[in-house]
Amino acid sequence: EHVAPPEMFYAGEEAKKYATNSRMREIQTTLSERALELLALPSENCMLLDIGCGSGLSGEVITEAGHCWIGCDISHDMLKVAKSMEVEGDVLLSDMGQGLPFRPASFDGAISISAIQWLCNADTAAANPYRRLLTFFTALHHALVRGGRAVLQWYPENPAQMELVTSCAMRCGFGGGLLVDYPHSTRAKKYFLVLFAGQRDGAPPQQMPKAMGDGGKETVDFANKRNRDRRGKKETRGVNAKEWVRNKKQRQRAQGKAVPEDSKYTARKRRPKF
């Protein structure tokens, strides 16, 4: 984070490398699955915000879980990679430190993977980390529905940075706190800021979820819902090709995209060419 601002660090070849590196994809996918589990969404077909969406790796996990999403990122090159990969969510160029351009109560939840630590850096003489954090958390609270959650995975440098980020979130009206998976491990330790935007009417009080590796669960529940081939080939066991295509077209219609009507030729297997 101290080498260059994110819009410069994730530029050009670095953006492509981030999206194609198998190890990076595996880490990003696992963290996104854990973030979705911590969101504890009430049902499918929720609208989620992916903050610092990058090339759309976390968005793919959201799509496979049956949700719609909108992603924002400060790196133009990372968003170009996302569009070239034909992600199903909508993406926009935005600096989260200057707020989020969305109407009140636009999202049922929000996730962020390895992004909010960039707000703690003063990349220019005019940048003030404290003010940027307050602006971000105020806008995030504004964009979530009442009772919605935000799960922000990040890499704090020191206890002072943890205190700064957490206190800014609480000052902007959030409840919740910091959750640490595998707190006794040096390599496996992961930090998640789990935030509650108020309380849903008639719902029980929100409780902090349990951390993994600290007398609680040792595996991610969400990972068991997906049969993911390690070679990158997605399995569609139990869903035939026509159902998969129709489901995808239905999600795109829900996003307001122009989609051709279904016909008897939809998902029809073509004969081999000679």
Give a verbal description of the structure:
By secondary structure, the chain is of the alpha/beta class. Helix content is 32%, strand content 18%. It contains eight helices and seven strands. Strand 1, helix 4 (57-64) and strand 2 form a beta-alpha-beta unit. Helix 3 packs across helix 4 (57-64). The longest helix is centred in the first third of the chain and has 18 residues, at 22-39.
Brief account:
By secondary structure, this protein is of the alpha/beta class.
Set out the fold topology:
Layout: H1 6-9, H2 13-20, H3 22-39, E1 47-51, H4 57-64, E2 68-73, H5 76-84, E3 90-93, E4 107-113, H6 129-143, E5 144-154, H7 159-171, E6 175-181, E7 190-197, H8 241-254
Parallel strand pairs: 1-2, 1-4, 2-3, 4-5
Antiparallel strand pairs: 5-7, 6-7
Helix pairs in contact: 3-4, 6-7
